[in-house]
Amino acid sequence: MEKKEIDQSNQNKEYNILIENVGIALKNSRQNIANTINTEIVLTYWQIGKYIIDYEQKGNEKAEYGSNMLNKLSSDLTQKYGKGFSRSNVFYIRKFYMEYPKVQTVSELLSWSHYVELLKIEQSEERSFYEIECKKSHWGVRELKRQMKSMLFHRLVLSSDKNQVIQLAKEGQIIDSPEDILKEPYIFEFTGLPQLPVYKEGDLEEALVNNLSQFLLELGKGFTYVGRQQNIIIAGRTYKVDLVFYHRILKCFVLIDLKRGEIQHEDIGQMNFYLNYYREEMNTEGDTEPIGIVLGAYQDKLVMQYALQNISNQVFVSRYQLYLPDRNQIETEFQRFLSNDKER
């Protein structure tokens, strides 16, 4: 290649780098501007909420949802200042200040849309949990809404002990042990399988992998996808593990076996077999004991008690469902759960 062509090629590369650098600068600038605008909107709404509460405390009518005061305030503010003052938004602006009376507790990491969703939660412990998880796990509004609909807070509490209520409210989900990653039940409404009259285990597996981002969101923090139908070859025979993940926090493989119907005792033995192999053949320096989760549509508690007895490996069973949980049913279970603890 002639020197002139080389120089031209180098100029093209440098020009392309210039274009890329400009793009990066613009992207960062626009993100910073968006973050600044978001912070200002949240703080402004907090200030407006304070003005409304201060006005009420002077003996004027309270701006409860549906009140004449709220309707008039919404109408007058919209007429004078434009969009952003619908009746529902004014209601949440007022409630925002009531729930966060100290401006220092307002996070610049969360948008106004985040706060609107959080303010729909009446229980302070539950709201605190979702707020912490939004910040720690960088949930967008879509992820927050999905986790709220799936009642993640309640499911985590019901999957552990009563002390988790306070811990979850103060710190969010802490992953210290294999038990901390479990849920009861797992919610797979995003698979689309409820619309099918009949489905196979392979259909469920494929649907989960095809919706991997939502599947990972449901599994929780720390999961990294390794693969599906992972081969185990022993004595010339091939066995397959449905789904394999690696957990970054616990530093171990997590094997998931899917069952369309009831979990059987032999499924526990099979998972125990897989875990022995992964411990001996797949673990490397720094890896901890692998974890196995057998997921089925339902299980017999007594059968599972006998099947899991005296197994040294970390084998767990749980159920999944293909639809969002019934809020009233889980809320009833949750309250009974707390009541039983108080009686002890």
Give the gist of this structure.
This protein is α/β, with parallel strands linked by helices. It is built from 13 helices and six strands. The chain has three domains: 3-119, no CATH class; 121-176 and 330-344, no CATH class; 186-324, Trna Endonuclease, Chain: A, domain 1 (3-Layer(aba) Sandwich), CATH 3.40.1350.
Describe the structure.
The protein has 3 domains: 3-119, no CATH class; 121-176 and 330-344, no CATH class; 186-324, Trna Endonuclease, Chain: A, domain 1. Helix content is 55%, strand content 15%. The longest helix has 55 residues, at 3-57. The mean pLDDT is 88. The radius of gyration is 26 Å and the shape is flat. A 6-stranded mixed beta sheet has the order 1-6-5-4-3-2, with helices on both faces. It has 344 residues and is an alpha/beta fold. The chain contains 13 helices and 6 strands. The protein has helices at 3-57, 68-81, 87-99, 112-118, 124-137, 141-149, 152-158, 163-171, 201-210, 212-219, 265-282, 301-308, 327-343, and strands spanning 186-187, 223-234, 237-247, 252-262, 291-298, 314-321. It starts with a helix and ends with a helix.
List keywords for this structure.
single chain; 344 residues; alpha/beta; 3 domains; six-stranded mixed β-sheet
